[in-house]
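thread: overnight batch results

M.L. [08:02]
morning all. the overnight job finished for the chain we discussed friday. pasting input first so we're all looking at the same thing
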Amino acid sequence: MLDRAQLGNQVQKYVEDNNLIRKKAIYSEVNGTENVLDFPKLTLQQIRDITMGVYQLKQAPRYTESHLSDDNYMLQTCRDRPNLLRVKLTSRHSSSRVYSLWIEFSGDEVTGWYCTCKVGARVVGCCAHIASTMWYLGYSKWELETPSTCKYADSILNAKDVPLETDSDSDSDGFIEE
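M.L. [08:03]
and the structure it wrote out:
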């Protein structure tokens, strides 16, 4: 952590030096349902090591699900640097606020990140936007089963849908006990 804190954010420097926040023409949109180029397959432990804890990782499934269901998950690759991914996400607190984030990857690891949110430039740990994107692209998309989400309503039965028990169903032997 101490070594990483001394380095500075190289992705932020590259984005700002090349004015990548404003340039739209150098990006190609990627379909979010396809595997993004060579984005590395990550384990939960690798994501925990990047986030420096579990707080952002616990938020990632719900945060990702809300963006995917609202079609607010715009993935783009940089034409000049194919291992640099840009994602635009709306804030979970204010739908009018949109954050841009960049994740740089190489081989089987994430090498850097930067987000335009208040805490997105940190290099020791990362913001929830970056954590949810890494979780979605590096972990969730590789899983065979759909990740569990917090849709509790799907597991609740509505009483009107449960068939009524008739007298013949409750009396298995046909005898009435007194």
